[in-house]
Structures are given as structure tokens and as C-alpha cells.
Amino acid sequence: MQIDLSNKTALITGATGDLGRVMARTLAACGANIVLHYNHNEAKANELRQEITALGRNAIIAQADVTNEQHILAMKEKAAKELGHVDIVVANAVIQYQWTSVLEQSPSDYFSQFESCVMQSVYLAKAFIPAMIERGGGRFIGINTECAMQNFPNQSAYTAGKRGMDGVYRVLAKEVGEHQITVNQIAPGWTISDRDRANHTEENAGYSQHVPLKRRGTDQEIANSVAFLASDLASFITGAYIPVNGGNVMPAI
């Protein structure tokens, strides 16, 4: 048994980011063609495109502000023209900001998180799911966070955006399930990425001591979970919020 995404096309927003790069490589290794979304880092997007085409897959880059519906629609048209229909959507992009307390956080940060978590997902759904309905299937995957369950100090804007996103995905899963479209979320913990490897900051005892598996997860482990949900192996899983964080948070029944 293996994950086979041959003849599938996947769109990954935030594909040039720490987690997005590994998702793109992983889905391509499973056989998928890739639409690499970026906002500012065109050079990294082109570098990643070259990596994926070297694997024998087709890949294109697409610039867009994911908080702008017209940009999302333009990205859909570019993908359709150059690669055909998109079978797998991975909403991974999020706006970065400086975390602080509720009393000190700028209102603009709450708006940015709502736009990049909730509205990005709504725009992607409106753009790509109608064609999935016509074809009778698809995968819609969002990258959430363990923070949505932690509610720690200084997380308020991020947690608010991701909790709003969670509501959209759960409702959407019920609305499109009859068309064999699955809608799921991956919730990473504090994940080791290439940035940590370069800075030798992989270990953090203060965090890991609270994780049942006693370590931080890796970008590859997050990407593996995305590949699973994108595949036929996950054909009967929908509406799920799946923590990939070594048990650091555990949803209750």
C-alpha cells in the first residue's frame, strides 16, 4: 500500500514557506503535479518549481494575495490553463505578525488573521470546489494549529483566526460531502523546519517536556499527514481536525 497521487494536481498556498516547501516536494514525490502559490518570494517559488520538475512532475508558480478574491480567481484560471483542474487544495498560507497580549494587540492583526485564515479558505472553496463537484470528488485541506486548542497568552489573534477557520471547514465538510469531496484540517505543533536546522534550534526542552512523545515534530511529518489526507487512503475521513503534534493537544469526544 502506498500513497499514489498520480494524475492529480495539487494547489498549495504559501508553498514557499517553511512547511509549504516540504508539502510541495512530498505531494510531488507521490506523483502529483503542483501549483505553487507565493505572495512575495518569486525566486524561492521558481527554485521549488525546478526541484519538482526535476522529479518528472509538472509545476507552475502563481502569485496571489490570498486575502483578495480576485487574486484567487486569477490563480484558478492560471492553474486551469496550464495544468488543468485542481484535485487537491491545501490552504497553508497565513499572514505573520508580532504576538502580544489582547490589550496590546493591534486590531489590524485580528483582521489580518481573519482574512488569511477564514477568508482565504472561503475564497479557495468558492474558486475550486464547484469544479470538484462537477467531477464528483476532491480534497480540501487546511493547515490549522495546536494553538486553537491551547489558548495561551499572546495567541489571541492567531487563535481567533484559526478557530474561525475551523468553523468554516466543519460546515463545508457537511455541505459538500455528498459529492465525495473531503474537507479536513491538520493542526501542527511547534514544528522543526529548515530554519531550525540552519540555526541549530531543533531542541527546546521547555516545549518538549509537555509533549507525550517528548520531542518536536518535523516539517516532513506534517507533509506526510497532508499527503495521507490528499490520497484515496483517506477517502472516508472528512470534517476532521487532526493534531500532528506528538499528543501535545488531544481533542476530546
Provide keyphrases for this structure.
SDR family oxidoreductase, 7 strands, SDR_fam, globular, NAD(P)-bd_dom_sf, 15% strand, 253 residues, oxidoreductase, oxidoreductase activity, Rossmann fold, seven-stranded parallel sheet, alpha/beta
How does this model look, in words?
The protein has one domain: 3-Layer(aba) Sandwich (Rossmann fold). Helix 3 (69-82) packs parallel to helix 4. By secondary structure, it is of the alpha/beta class. A seven-stranded parallel beta sheet has the order 3-2-1-4-5-6-7, with helices on both faces. The chain is built from nine helices and seven strands; from the N terminus they run βαβαβαβαβααβαααβ. It is 45% helix and 15% strand. This is SDR family oxidoreductase. Keywords: Oxidoreductase. Belongs to the short-chain dehydrogenases/reductases (SDR) family. It comes from Paenibacillus arenilitoris.
Describe the secondary structure blueprint for this structure.
Blueprint: E1 9-12, H1 18-29, E2 33-38, H2 42-54, E3 59-63, H3 69-82, E4 88-91, H4 107-135, E5 138-143, H5 147-150, H6 156-176, E6 181-188, H7 194-199, H8 205-208, H9 219-230, E7 241-244
Parallel strand pairs: 1-2, 1-4, 2-3, 4-5, 5-6, 6-7
Helix pairs in contact: 1-9, 3-4, 4-6
Low-confidence stretches: none
Radius of gyration: 17 Å
CATH classification class? Alpha Beta
Please name the fourth-level CATH homologous superfamily: NAD(P)-binding Rossmann-like Domain
**CATH level 3 topology:** Rossmann fold
Q: Give the termini separation.
A: 30 Å
Strand content: 5-15%
